[in-house]
Amino acid sequence: MSQFRRFSILTLAAVTTFAQSSEVSIQNPAGYKYVGRLAAPFHSQQRIVAPPKMTNSPRLDSLIRAGNLYLTAQDVIALALENNLDIAIQRYGPYLQQEVLRRAEGGAPLRQVGVPVSAGPVSVSTTGVSALSVGLAGGGSGVTSGGGLVASIGSPTPSLDPTLFAFAQFSHTTTPLQNTTVALVPTQVSSSQVYQIQYSQSWVTGTTAQMTYFTGHVGVNSPVYALNPYRQGDLELYITQPLLQGGRRPVNNRYIRIARNNIKVSEITLKLQVITTVSAILNLYWDLVSFNDDARIKQKALETAQQLYEDNKHQADLGTLPAIEVTRAEAQVSQSKEDLLIAQTNVLQQEVVLKNALSRTGIADPSLDEVHIVPLDSIIVPQQEQVQPVSDLAAEALAKRPEIEQGKINIESDKIQSLGTRNALLPNVQAFLDLSNSGLSGSANPLCASLPPAEQFVCTPDPYNVGGLGNFFGQVFRRNYPNYSAGFSVNIPFRNRAAQADYVTDQLTLHRDELGLQKVVNQVRQDVRNAMVGLQQARARYEASVATRKLAEQTLEAEQMRFKFGESSIPTVVQAQRDLANDQSAEIQAMANYTHSRIAFDQALGATLDVNHISMDEAISGSVARPSSLPASAPAKPEVKR
Fold it and tell me: pLDDT for 603-631, tens place per residue?
């Protein structure tokens, strides 16, 4: 078994292990014993967010052998999904929006947590056709990709998380009295214990209910109290219901629905980021392929020029050739060296850009900084293109392009938000209902006996109220002392300019976004047509460059033959060599331009993921299950001088 075959097996094992872990994770550990469910909502460590991954996937190291990084186009895509930082940053979007939804389900307003799509890396060379000029405008057209609609205006939404309030007070007071007629003691001493528990709950209908239990236990040193000590309190249910403003379920749950839409928008934004990044990195890869091919051509041209120089020098030494021809050949060698140096520089710089795009640490890792990239794929231009009507292609793009779906979701969120601002135009009318049951219980005042018998009637208790805690609760739950009240309140803001401005603003925003969606639709059609024209032109330029290169080969061959018979001059042969090298470089550039046009065409149709066999599940998890396969014998990397 060869080294590369063994390495393929190790790569499969490493990738399988990496695929078992997700890029972003939120853990929910077990709560504390006995009080876990009560303490969990208040504990910051109850939901643990894993730290970001700062290391590369094992796939990257497994593809490095003997100082070379061997890559196919599929390897580049897999490494981009696993290691590219733009995709990794955007991968947090759905998780952030999920927490915003959790916040909205508690009744809180929304938060802005979205991140716009980042443009992908760009090749070091600007020659030829760029992806942006043939297909999409970078990052999408007409629709914001920052994470969806954020709104916190209009009718306030109720807090949907229940609350529990508890209060306890213990006091002892000593009060000197100037007038002892009432208490019959010069100094009144009292001890009290006050307890209150209140449970509150609101619903999306706007209804709010409060259940309150209040009790106080009091003991005094005065003989005039019938019960001493005594317990007095009540159990109260207080209900409010908005009748106009804030009194509808669609109004009060609008943040929840918008948050759910924003989750969809964040998923679409992640999809757009994957499409943008993969397209840009594929352009980098195919540019590197073309740069390597161009460097080989320049190397061959240098060898040819060097051979011509040596032949001319030999003939000049024999006296059969003028010395000026040696100078001309030497000048051609110098020019060829300069061309080769430029081509090698493009290769080195392109490798840096590509390695930075495929690694989380960039070129900070010395082991990655020193390796050369060896592309294993070659640019292949198909014999013919599949011809489809532009109308069919436009319809396909309108059905697949994520920007269209994103725009529709944003318009839906605009309409949901306008429900809140429209409802805020109504007066604030609140209906309320108050039900309470009171209780009074205690012991007969032992100090009552200290009064004269004729005055003891003032401290004689009602036998029904004599008792302990059980008697008190019995009175409360038997409703021996019921209390009722009901009513309503009206708050009418005159002029109401703030609410009117908010409502009109939402309507203007809605209409603006509808126009923006139409602009995106028009832009998609334009992108498809431009991408199709660009692809046709790229093919035509490639075919023309092939024909030109063949003619240059024939011309050089003819001039060399004529030179042997003395019918041509060395400058003519040198010029033919230059023309052939330039035409070969032009052919390679035309092939690279074709790949750019093809990538832009797929992007314009919304077919980038399908064409490149990309699974959004793998993009979300940050791990690709597909193994990277290396050939049994990898090609050698041409020597490039640094």
Answer: 999 999 999 999 999 999 989 988 887 76
